[in-house]
Amino acid sequence: MADLFSMAIAAILINNIILTKFFGMCPFLGVSKKTSSAIGMGAAVIFVIMGASIITYFLYHGVLVTLGIEYMQLITFILVIASFVQFTEMFIKKFSPALYKSLGIYLPLITTNCAVLYVAKDNITQNYSFIEMLVNSFSVPLGFLLVLYIFSCMRERLDIASTPNAWKGNPVALVAAALMALAFSGFAGLV
Amino acid sequence: MNRKENFIAGFVKENPVFGLYLGLCSALAISTTLDNAIGMGLCVTLILTASNMIISAIRKITPDEIRIPVYIVVIATLVSAVEMLMAAFMKELYANLGVFISLIVVNCIILGRAEAFASKNGIVDSALDGIGMGLGYTFSLLLISGVREFLATASWTITNPFNNQSFCTLVLTSLNHSRFPCSIHQQVHF
Amino acid sequence: MKKILHLTVFLAVVGALSAGVLSYVNELTAPIIEEQKLAAVKESLEVLYPGASFSELSTEQDETGLVTGAYLADGKGYIYQLQVVGYNSSTPIDFMMSIDLDGTVSGYAVLTQQETSGIGSRVADAEFVDKVVGSSVNDSIATLSGATISSTAVINGINAAKALYGLQAGVEVEAPSAPEVVEVVYTLSDDYSSNGAAVVSQDGTSFTVTANGFPGNDVNEFVIVVENGAIVSVTNTVFGDTAGIGEAAVSEDALSAYAGATLESEVDAVSGSTFTSKSVFAAMQAALKAASGEEASTDEGTEETETTEETVSVDGDSYTAEAQGFGGTVSVTVVLNGSDIVDVQVIGDSETAGIGTNAIEQLPAKIVEADSADVDAVSGATVTSTAILTAVKDALSQAGLTSAEGTSYTAEAQGFGGTVSVTVVLNGSDIVDVQVTGDSETAGIGTNAIEQLPAKIVEADSADVDVVSGATVTSTAILNAVKDALAAAQ
After folding, report:
1. Per-residue confidence (pLDDT) for residue C310, from 0 to 100
2. Do B77 and C18 make contact, defined as CB atoms within 8 angstroms?
3. Total structural domains in chain C?
4. Is A69 on the interface with C (CB under 8 A)?
5. Which of A161, B71, B125, C221 would give a disulfide with C238, using CB separation of 3.0 to 4.6 Å?
6. Tens of pLDDT along C366-386?
7. What is the per-residue pLDDT across C223-259, written as a single tens digit (0 to 9) for each?
8. How many CB atoms are located within 10 Å of the residue C241 CB?
C-alpha cells in the first residue's frame, strides 16, 4: 500500500509528466489559455490514458506475448489509442456538447499526445502488475491535470498583463513554464 | 519558385519547433547533446520524407473516412522498422534516444504534414516538403542542444553512431599565456 | 454496405502489409539485438564456463526475487546472477554461481560487495568459496561466524539459485532449510585483546569495565560483580554497538545466563550479535582477572596465552621496542639467543580486530622462522605489519644486530633538539636498512620521524622521500644524514 502511494506521489509531483519528463507539451501550450478548457482537457486525458492503458496492457500480455509478436507493439498500441480517442470523442459529444465545443480540435489530438503512448509503453517496460498499472495510469494524468490547471491560471493572468509585443503569447508562456519546472524540481527526493 | 519557398519556410517561418510549436516533447527532452540532436533530427527527417512519399503515393486510392488510421499505420510501421534497425546497428544512439524513437509516431509534425500536404500533392513535392520540414526540425534541435551541451560540458562533440567513435571535438580551454582568456581547441579524428 | 466492406478490406490490406514488413525487419534484427544483450554479460559468464555458448533463460519461476539473471551454458550447466542485501543496506551484494548438469556447484564469484572489510567481506574469501564450490546442490551451507548477516544473505541467494536450478533442469532438489548458524564455542580464557577491555573503576566486588564490540563503534560499558572467582552479575550500562543488532547480546536474559561463569567456563555467544557478545566476554574476563589479581592467588593454566605482558620463559636476552601501529602503539619484545631470534611477542591492543590482529598473530612466527625482520607484511594489515617489523628492527639494533647484510655507513645531522645519528646499510647500491638514533628529538613529533622514515627510505631505496608532516626538522635531519651516508659510500 505504501509502495503504491509513494508511486502515485512520485508520478504526480516528482516525475511530473509535463514539467519533468516533457511529455504532453502540445496541449500544454494549446489548451491552457482558459481554466475551464484546461480542466476539461485534463479530465479527458485521465479518461483516455486509463482506458488505453488497461486495453493495451491486456493486449500486450494476452495477445502479443502469447503469439510472440512483440514487435507489433507500436502499431497495435497506437491503433488502440486512436480508436479509444475516437470513442471518447463520440462519448463527450453525446454527454457534454459544451465541453466538446470548447475542446474543439484538441480532442482528437489527444491521439498524438506523447503522454498517452508513453504511459502505455511504460506500463510494459517497467513490468508493472495490474494494480501498479492502474495506479500509474491514474496518477500520471492526474499530475498532467494539476500542472495544466496551474498553468492555465497563470496564463489567464499573463494575458491581461502588459507584456512586450515580441513576448506575447507563447514565448512568455514558455518562460513561465520554465519557472514552474524549476519550482517542481524542488520535489525531488520527496519520497 | 514555390518549391524553394516552401523548403525555406520549413527552416524559419514555419519551423516546426519554434514557429508551430509541434514536436516539443522530443525537442526538449532529447536535445541534451549534439549527437542526440543530429541522430533524432535525421531519424525524423527520414521517417517524415518516407511517410510523405508513401502517403502521397496512395493518396488517390485511400478512402477518405479511414485516412487517419491508414496514415497512422504507415507511420507506425516506418517507426517500428527504424527502431529495430537502430537497436541492431546503432546501439549507443538507440540507448540514448530510448523511448523517443517510438514517440516519433505521435510527433505532430509527421501526422500534421501527412494530413496537410502529402495527401494533396505529388510524390516529389511531398518528399521535398518532408526533407525541408525535417531539416528545419533538425536545425532547431541543433540550436537547442548546442546551447545545452556547451553549458554542460564546455565542448561540442560529434560521434559516429555506428561505432561510437568521436568524430570531432571542439573543446573550450583556457590558456595562461594568451591575450585571450580562452580558446576553442579542435581535435578531429577519422 | 459495400462502402464499409471496402473500407475494412483496405484497412486490412494496409495492416497486413505493415505486419509483413515488420516481421521481415524483425527477423533481420532480432538475432543481432539478442547477441548484443548477451555480449554485455558474456564476459562475466565466461569466468565460470569459458568457451561455452550461452543462452538467456527466464527468471520468472524464481519466487524469492533474488535471482537477477539465469543463463544456460550448452552442455555444461546453468549460471545464475544474484543480488542480495547483506549488512550494508545501501549497496547489495552481487554474485554469480554456476551449477553443473550433474548438480555440483562448480563456480561462485562475488562481483560487487561493500560489506565491512574483514568481516562481511569474508563471503568473497577463500574460506567461504571453498565451502560453496564443490558442494552438491542438495547440501546446505553453514553461515560464517561473526559474519552472520552477510553470509545468511548470500546463502539465501544460493538457495534461491538452487531452487530455480531444480525447476529449470527438471531435477529434484531438496528444499534447503534456513542456513544453519554455526555455533562457535567460546571460553572466558580466550584471547579478547581485540576487544580492548579495560577496568575503569572498582568498588569492592563490583567492577566497571569498558570493552569494544564491532569495530568502529563506541565502547560498551558494563558493571560486573565478581565473588570468589566467579561472575555474580553483569549489567550493561552503556551500549555503543550497532543498534538493532548488538542489543540482543546485552539483553537481561542474555546477561543473566553468564551468572556463575569463571575463567574456565564455556559461554554462548548470542547468534547474530557475535561482536557484542565478545565484548561482554572480554569485559567479564577483565573483571575476573582484576578480581583474581587482587586476591593474589596464582591461577595456573587459566592465564591468557598469546598477548601476555610477561616475558616468555625462553632462554636469551629480550629487547623491547615500540612503533606506531594503526590504532595505537605496538609494543614488540624480541628474545635473542646469541644472534638468533628465538621469540617475538607483540602487544597491540588498539589494532583493528580481524585486520591488524592478524598481523599480530601471524608475524611473530614468521620472524622467528626467518630469523630476521625481512618478512613480508600481512596482506591487508600493512600498517600494523610495518609497525611490528620496524619495532623488531629497533629491538635488533638495540641488541647491536642489524637485520640485513651489507656495509654500513654512519652520518650525523643536526635535528630539532640535538644530533641525529643515522646508520645506512647498503647491499651493493640498494639501501637495505636504516637505523636512526636521536635522543633529543621531541617525543611524539620528532620521534615519529625516527620511527617512520627508516622504513620509507628502505622501501624507496633512496633519500628522496617525503618528510613526516609536523616533524620537518627531524625528518630533514634524517634525510640529510642518509644522503651524507650515501655520499660517503661512493
Report:
1. 44
2. yes
3. 3
4. yes
5. C221
6. 888 888 888 888 877 888 888
7. 988 888 888 888 888 888 888 888 888 888 888 888 8
8. 24
> C159 and C193: one domain?
no
Q: Please, which chains are in contact with A (at least 3 CB pairs closer than 8 A)?
A: B, C
- Do C290 and C159 fall into the same domain? no
ipTM surpassing 0.85 = no
Letter for the amino acid at B51?
S
Selecting from A23, A74, A117 the residue whose C-beta is nearest the C-beta of B80 gives A74
Answer whether C14 touches B (CB < 8 Å).
yes
The helices-and-strands tally (H runs, E runs) of chain A is 9, 0
Burial zone of C183 (CB within 10 Å; 0-12 exposed, 13-18 middle, 19+ buried): exposed
Low-confidence ranges of chain A (pLDDT < 70): none
Can you give the pLDDT at residue C180?
A: 65
In a domain, C411, yes or no: yes
pLDDT at B181: 54
Are the Cβ atoms of A29 and B72 closer than 8 angstroms?
no
pLDDT tens-digit map of B110-162: 888 888 888 888 899 889 888 888 888 898 999 999 999 888 887 888 887 77
Structural domain harbouring C150: 54-169
Distance to chain C for B182, nearest Cα, Å: 36
Rounded to the nearest integer, the mean pLDDT of chain B is 82
Domain total for chain B? 2
Q: Are C69 and C48 in contact (CB under 8 A)?
A: no
In a mutational test of the B interface, the residue from C4, C5, C6, C22 whose CB has the highest number of chain B CBs within 10 Å is C22
Percentage of chain C exceeding pLDDT 90: 0
Using a CB-CB cut-off of 8 Å, the residues of chain C touching B88 are: 28-29, 32-33, 36
Residues B79 and B173 in one domain: no
Task: Tell me whether residue C28 is in a domain.
Answer: no
Q: How far is CA C150 from the centre of its chain?
A: 14
Q: Is residue C141 part of a domain?
A: yes
Q: Are residues C364 and C395 in the same domain?
A: yes
Whether B88 and C22 lie within 8 Å, measured CB to CB: no
Residues across chain B: 190
Domains: count for chain A: 1
The CA distance from B136 to B16, in Å, is: 7
Q: What angle do CA C16, C22, C25 make, to 5 degrees?
A: 145
Using alpha carbons only, give the angle A79, A80, A81 rounded to the nearest 5 degrees: 90
Local structure of B185: helix, strand or coil: strand
Q: In this structure, is residue C287 part of a structural domain? A: yes
What average pLDDT does this structure show over C304-324?
A: 60
- Please check whether residue C16 touches A, CB under 8 A: no
C165 plus C286 within the same structural domain: no
Q: Are residues B81 and B138 in the same domain?
A: yes
Shortest distance between the Cα of A71 and any Cα of chain C, in A, equals 7
